[in-house]
Amino acid sequence: IAGITQAPTSQILAAGRRMTLRCTQDMRHNAMYWYRQDLGLGLRLIHYSNTAGTTGKGEVPDGYSVSRANTDDFPLTLASAVPSQTSVYFCASSGGEDTGELFFGEGSRLTVL
Amino acid sequence: GQNIDQPTEMTATEGAIVQINCTYQTSGFNGLFWYQQHAGEAPTFLSYNVLDGLEEKGRFSSFLSRSKGYSYLLLKELQMKDSASYLCAVEDSNYQLIWGAGTKLIIKP
Questions:
Q1: B4 and A66 in contact (C-beta within 8 Å)?
Q2: Under a CB-based contact definition with an 8 Å cutoff, are residues A23 and A91 in contact?
Q3: B45 contacts in A (CB within 8 Å)?
């Protein structure tokens, strides 16, 4: 089934550790996004990529980095995790639909202690 | 600043109709989206409005008034499976999506 796959689905890690959340899509979408979702807040954009080889900063980029070496993969790295990065992270992609709708992965629940 | 407002929580009865409102103040407007998100799951696309008026899709309809900065999502013949959060998002002049915090809809038998 075509879609977006995120890994891991859940992770607990100690503050200061490095962590990479993986995201892979097989829809050949050009645009990909990383959001975080926190209780009581709307989805907040961390980083985005409009096409392979390019990335951009979203609303809350500090403490996160991304890369887009190819169309399918868009990993998100926390270089040195802090407790405020405890959240649910969603990867999404868009492309080809007239509405510009986003297709989301199932999310990665990250807890930083 | 940019802002999307929607009620935090609503309760409705199975079989009834419910209207979820969304008001927005953004830097420009290129479209408004509604997404559904069941607890612990990913958001899924429901509707897209770029012109004023009502868009109907089965039991769900979405309305937009650009002059008033207002939209609503109308859900008819409510079913228990409609219990979810409903997210309103506006695409601004830079084609960035601004998201509301979501409305948690509770359906009671």
A1: no
A2: yes
A3: 99, 101-103
